[in-house]
């Protein structure tokens, strides 16, 4: 899909985010549990195939696809895991994951309580797993509108593989896009791994 004028894309995205957020909130608990189990299997398969010694991921909020079982597995395998911590200036710091205490960052996202590393810490990972509201089949990711991950991915000189984590049904044919939007290399859903061609 060609870039829309930013005003049109912003309005379309706002409506789509509201719809997707509403769908996530009414998802029954048994569906969430089944999705978590299946998604964990897919994330383990992807990580085992790519073989990174370190990766970046995130702690899921209650409405997001759950990442904690996968993160626990990664730590048990000796993979170094970095998690994002939002800053007031719109950038992300990173903190090592230790499967222990959590707190909320400046925008209310769950984060670890370990030592904060600066924004460039992510440059050393071999895989980045990012949250998304939806992803389209060209690899365009739509986040939740704050731009943290677009800024991070857009500032990297050498990007490792980047995969968005979404529920089934959130991998769609086409999404609106703005000039600053960053694509991803693939999407991980409970039902499988989709890789996008460049």
UniProtKB/TrEMBL annotation:
Family stated for the protein in its record: Belongs to the 5-formyltetrahydrofolate cyclo-ligase family.
EC number of this enzyme: 6.3.3.2
NCBIfam families registered for this protein in UniProt: MTHFS_bact
Cofactor(s) needed for function: Mg(2+)
GO molecular function, a single term: 5-formyltetrahydrofolate cyclo-ligase activity
This protein's record includes keyword Nucleotide-binding: yes
The keyword Metal-binding belongs to this UniProt entry's keyword annotation: yes
Organism: Microcella humidisoli
Designated name of the protein: 5-formyltetrahydrofolate cyclo-ligase
Highest taxon of source: Bacteria
Keywords: ATP-binding, Ligase, Magnesium, Metal-binding, Nucleotide-binding
Catalytic activity: (6S)-5-formyl-5,6,7,8-tetrahydrofolate + ATP = (6R)-5,10-methenyltetrahydrofolate + ADP + phosphate
């Amino acid at each position: 899909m060609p870039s829309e004028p930013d005003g049109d894309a912003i309005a379309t995205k706002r409506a789509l985010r509201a719809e997707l957020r509403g769908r996530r909130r009414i998802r029954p608990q048994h569906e969430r549990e089944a999705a978590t189990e299946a998604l964990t299997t897919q994330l383990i398969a992807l990580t085992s195939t790519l073989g990174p010694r370190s990766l970046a991921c995130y702690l899921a909020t209650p409405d997001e696809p759950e990442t904690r079982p996968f993160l626990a597995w990664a730590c048990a395998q000796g993979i170094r895991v970095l998690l994002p911590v939002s800053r007031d200036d719109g950038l992300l710091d990173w903190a090592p994951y230790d499967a222990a205490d959590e707190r909320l960052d400046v925008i209310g996202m769950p984060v670890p309580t370990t030592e904060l590393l600066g924004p460039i810490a992510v440059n050393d990972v071999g895989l980045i797993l990012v949250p998304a509201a939806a992803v389209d089949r060209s690899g365009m990711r739509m986040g939740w509108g704050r731009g943290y991950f677009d800024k991070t991915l857009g500032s990297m000189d050498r990007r490792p593989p980047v995969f968005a984590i979404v529920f089934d049904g959130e991998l769609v044919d086409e999404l609106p896009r703005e000039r600053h939007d960053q694509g991803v290399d693939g999407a991980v859903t409970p039902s499988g791994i989709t890789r996008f061609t460049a």
